[in-house]
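Justification of computing resources. Each target in the renewal requires a structure prediction run like the one illustrated here; the chain below, 591 residues long, is used simply to show the kind of job we budget for.
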Amino acid sequence: MTTAPEPPKASYAELLPAYRPLLKYVRPDLTLVLLDYVAIMVAVVTNTAMIWLIGQPFNLLQQQQYDAVLTSLALFAAVVVINQISQLMGGMLTNTIAFRTIGRLRNAIMRQALHLCFPVISTMERGDLLARLSMDVDRIKGVIVDALLMVGSHVLTFSIYVFMLFWIDSALALWALLIAPLFIVHQRLFAPHKRRATERFYEFNGRLLGFEEQALAHTRGINHYTAEHQVGALHQGVFEKARYWATRDRNIDVWYGNTFAFLIYVSGLVIVLLGIEGIKEQRFGIGHLVSFMLYLGYLTVPSRGLADILFQSFGALGASARVRELFHAQPLTRDHEGAPPLQIRQGAIECRDLAFAYHDKSMLYAGLDISIAGGETVALVGPSGAGKTTLANLLDRYYEPVRGMILIDGQDIAGVSLASLRRNITIVSQEPFLFNDTIRANLLMVQPEADHARLLACCRDSFAQEFIDKLPQGLDTVIGSGGVELSTGQKQRLSLAQAFLRHTPILIMDEATSALDSHSEQQVIEAMQRLRKGRTTLLIAHRYSSLQSAHRILYFNGDGTVSLGRHEELMHNHAGYQQAVAWQTRKKGDK
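Resulting structure tokens:
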């Protein structure tokens, strides 16, 4: 196993900066927090009273005041009832605050991930993102909620119990407090080991979740190539690393808990021996020693609670860092301050001296100059990796060009708001945008204001109505994640129905018919022709059958240059295009 680099030593100074930005997710429940504090204070006061009242019957019996014993016990019972009600209310309020905080934090992470857009998110492991949404958030909740609610409770309890110890007998209390530094040293010994183990577990668990997500997504390929054994072995290897650090993390918790308990028992034994001497010297009675021991015993609850909060805070620093890292991540493109909305008149697209390269790679194209008229259909063809889809992504501003600009109706898209730009462009790709929900819900996802009649009209225009009518619940049929319950052709027609609903002046079709059979392809092509009417369309495709209806062809030569012309022109004077068409249209058996 590769030895991971040693993390920096844990420091108390880094705790507040690590968690303070995350406390804002508790702030909306400030009223509930205040009510919880009231319940906590009542519980602490009644706990203090209960411990004192437990010792009183022993003193009364020692003094032979038998009638007063029943009164003392009745008072104890009344305090117990108040205590239990306050603890019940406090527990319910704490649970409410905790889960509402989890909801807000998870939703904020999800919104941030979506805001970053796919170029940034695609560089991250999905399993790792899921780990941040679930396990990391749970760890952080255990710190920020406990720190906000329980620190006050523990400090108040500790203070009152220490006061009661000194009130009963100051000499015995001083002996008890002299032992306290042992617990601080104990916590400091375990904290750095806890932090290292937790951070490594987060790292390798994210890798494990990412591997599992990929394996489940490629089950068909694994089965086809009978690679179950190989993938299973790889999974075992990844799991072993996560298991090692998970086991180490939990074992540190076990060692910490048991050694903490051992210190408590030893301390208690010492105090009992000293307390017996106090009774012999008649400094206090048996009942007082009982109350003293109970206060001292229960003092371990806030002491250990404070130590545990610190212990878990160090352990969750990795989770906090991972979540804050995601919040600090920036999208590749963003709105300029005061950016105006895009104003579409004809939908004309122009590239001027456009140059683009992915990070640390050579120029995909440089000095690209093209002009597409409003309402024109231009097919983008050429070898894989030549920049066809990249041009569409630049038009939708997922990336910024290295040089030059893209204009729509004379407006530089870099200067308009992203929302207005994307509201005017629809992309139909070979990967349909479909959630595990009903067909109706998936259609309304792209156009929430559409009524039932509008939904039906768009389904008819896309030929989706044909199969929807045959489904058991029609538009209200659940289609599974990614439309898994539908065929490829049905999913593509549903994607076209979404495009009809969007009704944007600019349309991008990225390999929309690449995975269809001949019958489905013909239906989709006919629906696409309906959809393209009156819209500026970029048609990215490899199939020659998809290009015949294009007004012009934009051929990416693969060397950073492009050729633009009608099909007939390119067939006459462009050797690369001629070869591509010949390859697509050759008859079976031709050499």
